[in-house]
Specification:
The structure holds two protein chains of two kinds. Chain A is of the alpha/beta class. Chain A is built from eleven helices and twelve strands. In chain A, the strands form three sheets. Chain A has a seven-stranded mixed sheet with strand order 3-2-1-4-8-9-12. Chain A is globular, with a radius of gyration of 22 Å. The chains are: A alpha/beta, B alpha/beta. Chain A: InterPro entries: GPI_transamidase, Peptidase_C13.
């Protein structure tokens, strides 16, 4: 009873004065605080959007592909990544390296590798499709890979890049999504229980204007520049003749590249990856809608995925029916070890209908 | 009479009356304001620094990949071409060029065209262009860029630019090995200066249309292959592989210019390669401190406008503008001093090749035609420009003189017979002369019952039509089959037709005398037509409009149809000035000045004679240019300036019908007709 009262009190105080929360929680039992800060999500989704086309916007495609590479490396499967790319840089006739996109002049990594699944491409990348995707109002007959099938337990990462202005982001060369439309879309997502927590990341000029209108809970937003500021590109590859990547994404990636699936790095650290000295623009952060302390949230809550994964140095048979044919040498060893069990939570309660 | 056109309403305004009395002062103030504004534009506060507005170009982001082996190839090709030139003194070594293009793997074609020269009984000339298309490897052939090099035969009177073709071919060989072309590249070698280029362009754009060619003077034929819509063109004129500086030529047909972005692009890339380049770039000299920045800027502006005003392109690039293809010429001039010791001849042309590569890659990045930056501008300096919004006020102020004067003249048009007399300068005794002014100030009722006077609209309209008809004949007559069959050169034929028609215009006011009030009405009509014509010309070709305005506006302001006894010397000087302003005379004076400037050592008589033949040639060239290339300078002079001059001359003469005609019905006994009327 007393605990219940305290919880209500804390919630009330927390909603009134966010800064007072730290002091109030200090009197709470540590285990309880940890529990409230722990993530409650059950799956992860990512929506990665490059909204601009044309060859000289190569860097935006490189941006989005780099983030795609990172989230995929950290464990979100392709089926749960919606990748929208407005132009095809890899096959642009001007590209001296056909079929390849790089995010660095040193050309270490071809971010347009052979395992990239682009869900919305070219002229499919429109404001309408983007809003339909977020709100789950896709048209009949839309492929499963083009749907955001998130639920109340999903942590969703939304990454946008392109050319922005005060209160809008330009899609293709013809239309814009306004910050109000974006906020409405996210509110609908909340009402339809399409996310548990949402991490909103934008790399455009005047990016902070895009999250200004948000009112939905559990949204953490970060933007590459404040209103009135330009986000700048990082460097040029003189052998291709275009800017390779934007500053904010470059430094974000520098951070993400060091993150491993079981890393203890937090979102709080990630929000500080690009200080003004290197970014030139000021990175904007919006935390008031977010109930947890970013410094206690692991970055893998958004960039990684909850999946039954285990790092093993042994050979493990997951799919083959007849194990014996393949694993004979280590049989004795396997028996000696304690057997483990993989529990796959089915995403849909399909067994109920069988 | 309509409400707006009722002079009795407008004359009631005191402001208008006050202004009308000072119409000349107002107009001269406007004129001076316009000219001063133009001079101000040369000051850095009034012009802007150039910048690249088209993102897609991204100039200089890419490292040039062309290397010294391309230069070696160019040198080797130049040596081969020099050997070929010994066998082709007055023709183009087509076979050699085509063979080289084929060798480099281009899709090579030849283009034949025919010129039917109409004058002197008619002759036919044949020409041949060679072009090779490098197809974009990974995209459909919907867009193209042209790299052109004119070929001049060894016997040509112009400067030798035979190094252009080797340079073009060396670049083609380099480009052939690259996979990043998003547009087809056309490598074009034309002959016979601009004629070849014009024929090729016409063939490219209209060659497949069924046009009746029996009347055309230039028969362009058709092209065997095309490369989609042309986005941009670069014309290369290289005197030698060892270059001193690059002159960027931009003036095109009828004073059109390429987009400012294209000029800026070339300047950027040239600067990156360390080539001295610029608009009207002169060889590097010792620094002269005598000229201030303002003086240099003004000189640059005036030279640019001067070369624009004739409407004749100063390179093959100018003909592209007609098809909305932005293009310019990079004219690389030979190094004057033998500085071979300093530079390595084996890599002399590498910077230029790199520049061409850089320009090509930027143009390759274009997503649509140039559309961002300015198409109408004046270059003050290589990195400063004046936009159309800044220079137009100068012309508008000049033209405003005509409209202001037209309005004020209209508002003071004679309404009654008494005013008509006063306007005609019919001097009564002083009391009576001042009477109407008093009336206007105070009591209008006194005049109201006087007989209203109807302006002679009909006869003025007929007069205007007659002058325009003369202008029309100037355009049509020299090309009539009947005249063309006269065994006479183009120059004497054109000149004699023009002189004859000018003479008719000269005599016209002596023969046809307008009815009373007609001159005043003609004056208003003249001012309106003059103002409209100038502003339209100025919009299409600012240089031509502005120069003609500067030249003629003072005369137009001082023109007055009212007879004033005291100003007879002024009147006569205006008549003299009008005579000099005859288009034929103006052309002669300009040519005379140019001859004098070019050959200062000749005696005056010889200069005048030479200028006369040159002026005759100029008018013939004007006609030919208008027929073949579509230059409208000849048309403007004949159809607009000549009729305007005839009206102007009529007004300057101010010949009136004898006053006794209308004195009879006026019945005012105290008047005494002035004999001044008849002295002309």
């Amino acid at each position: 009873m007393f605990i219940k009262f305290v919880v209500i009190l804390v919630l009330l105080l927390g909603s009134c004065r966010a800064d007072a929360e730290a002091e109030d929680t200090s009197v709470l039992p540590e285990g309880f605080v940890d529990a409230s800060q722990r993530s409650t999500h059950t799956n992860n989704w990512a929506v990665l959007v490059d909204a601009s086309r044309f060859w000289f916007n190569y860097r935006h495609v490189a941006n989005v592909l780099s983030i795609y590479r990172s989230v995929k490396r950290l464990g979100i499967p392709d089926s749960q990544i919606i990748l929208m790319i407005a132009d095809d840089m890899a096959c642009n006739a001007r590209n001296p390296r056909p079929g390849q996109v790089y995010n660095n002049a040193n050309q270490h990594i071809n971010v347009y590798g052979d395992d990239v699944e682009v869900d919305y491409r070219g002229y499919e990348v429109t404001v309408e499709n983007f809003v339909r995707l977020l709100t789950g109002r896709t048209q009949n007959g839309t492929a499963r890979s083009k749907k955001l099938l998130s639920d109340a337990g999903s942590n969703v990462l939304i990454y946008l890049t392109g050319h922005g202005g005060d209160g809008f982001l330009k899609f293709q060369d013809s239309e814009e999504i306004t910050s109000q439309e974006l906020a409405d879309g996210i509110q609908q997502m909340w009402e339809k229980k399409r996310y548990n927590e949402l991490f909103f990341m934008v790399d455009t000029c005047q990016a902070a204007s895009l999250y200004e209108k948000f009112t939905s809970p559990n949204v953490l937003a970060v933007a590459s520049s404040l209103v009135g500021e330009d986000s700048l590109s990082h460097h040029v590859d003189p052998s291709i003749g275009v800017y390779m990547i934007d500053r904010y994404t470059y430094y974000a990636l520098e951070f993400l590249e060091k993150v491993q699936p079981f890393s203890k790095r937090t979102i709080g650290e990630f929000l500080q990856v690009c200080p003004k000295r290197v970014c030139i623009s000021t990175v904007g952060v919006r935390k008031d809608l977010y109930r947890r302390d970013p410094h206690k949230v692991p970055i893998t809550d958004f960039f990684g995925a909850i999946r039954p994964t285990r790092v093993s140095t042994d050979r493990i048979n997951v799919t083959l029916a007849n194990e014996d044919d393949f694993i004979q040498v280590d049989k004795d060893e396997l028996v000696a070890r304690k057997p483990f069990k993989i529990v796959m939570e089915s995403q849909f309660p399909s067994d109920l209908f069988k | 009479m309509g409400l707006l056109s009722d002079p009795s309403i407008s004359t009631q305004s005191k402001l208008v009356d006050g202004l009308a009395r000072h119409v000349r002062k107002v107009c001269y103030t406007l004129y001076v304001a316009g000219v001063v504004w133009f001079f101000c534009l040369a000051m850095p506060e009034f012009n802007h620094g150039t910048y690249l507005s088209e993102n897609a170009l991204s100039p200089g982001l890419v490292y040039p990949e062309i290397r010294v082996d391309a230069n070696r190839l160019a040198i080797q090709l130049l040596e081969e071409l020099q050997r070929e030139r010994k066998d082709h003194l007055s023709t183009t070594p087509h076979a050699w060029i085509a063979a080289k293009m084929n060798e480099f793997g281009l899709e090579t074609h030849t283009h034949n065209y025919t010129l039917r020269y109409p004058f002197g009984g008619g002759k036919e000339y044949h020409g041949k262009n060679i072009y090779g298309i490098l197809r974009a490897p990974r995209i459909a052939s919907t867009e193209g860029i042209v790299f052109a090099a004119p070929y001049r035969a060894a016997s040509s009177v112009h400067a030798d630019i035979s190094a252009s073709v080797p340079l073009l071919l060396a670049f083609a060989d380099f480009a052939r090995r690259k996979n990043y072309w998003a547009k087809d590249l056309i490598f074009l070698v034309t002959e016979q200066e601009q004629l070849g280029m014009q024929a090729w362009l016409e063939a490219y754009h209209d060659g497949d249309r069924d046009v009746d060619v029996s009347k055309a003077y230039l028969r362009p034929g058709n092209l065997p292959a095309r490369a989609g819509s042309l986005q941009a063109a670069l014309n290369i004129e290289v005197q030698d592989l060892e270059i001193d500086h690059v002159d960027v030529r931009i003036e095109g047909l009828n004073g059109k210019l390429p987009n400012l972005d294209m000029f800026n692009l070339v300047q950027r890339i040239m600067a990156r390669e360390g080539i001295a380049s610029g608009y009207k770039q002169a060889p590097r000299k010792k620094r002269r401190h005598s000229q201030s920045a303002f003086e240099q800027n003004l000189r640059q502006m005036l030279t640019m406008l001067a070369s624009q005003s004739s409407g004749v392109p100063n390179g093959n690039h100018g003909l592209f503008h007609r098809y909305r293809i932005d293009s310019l010429t990079i004219a690389a001039n030979r190094r004057a001093t033998h500085a071979t010791l300093k530079g390595n001849p084996g890599s002399a042309a590498v910077p230029l090749l790199k520049a061409v590569e850089g320009i090509a890659r930027s143009l390759n990045n274009l997503l649509e035609r140039f559309h961002q930056s300015f198409f109408f501008y004046v270059l003050v300096n290589n990195d400063r420009y004046i936009s159309i919004g800044d220079y137009m006020p100068a012309l508008v102020a000049l033209v405003a003189c005509a409209f202001v004067k037209a309005y004020l003249t209209w508002s003071t048009l004679p309404v009654t017979n008494a005013e008509l007399e006063a306007a005609a300068g019919l001097v009564r005794d002083p009391e009576q002369e001042q009477a109407p002014e008093l009336d206007q100030d105070g009591e209008l009722e006194v005049d109201s019952d006087l007989d209203k006077f109807e302006l002679p609209y009909g006869s003025v309209l007929i007069y205007l039509t007659a002058t325009l008809l003369i202008g029309f004949l100037c355009n049509v007559l020299p090309l009539q089959q009947y005249f063309l069959e006269i065994p006479m050169g183009a120059a004497p034929l054109t000149t004699s037709v023009l002189s004859f028609l000018s003479l008719i215009g000269f005599i016209l006011p002596f023969v046809v005398v307008l009815p009373p009030g007609g001159l005043e009405l003609l004056h208003v009509a003249f001012l309106l037509i003059y103002g409209c014509a100038l502003i339209v010309i100025g919009l299409l070709n600012f240089a031509l409009g502005f120069f003609s305005a500067v030249l003629t506006v003072p005369l137009v302001i001082s023109l007055e149809t009212k007879e004033e006894n005291t100003r007879s010397t002024l009147r006569n000087s205006i008549r003299l000035a009008t005579l000099i302003m005859n288009p034929m005379m103006v052309i002669y004076v300009i040519v005379l000045a140019m001859t004098f400037y070019q050959f200062p050592e000749l005696p005056l008589q010889k200069i005048m004679l030479r200028a006369a033949t040159a002026a005759m040639d100029a008018s013939a060239y004007g006609l030919i240019d208008s027929v073949i290339y579509g230059n409208w300078l000849y048309f403007v002079i004949c159809t607009i300036f000549l009729p305007l001059w005839i009206i102007c001359w009529t007004l300057a003469l101010s010949k009136r019908r004898d006053y006794t005609d209308y004195l009879d019905f006026d019945e005012s006994p105290s008047t005494s007709p002035q004999p001044k009327m008849k002295t002309n």
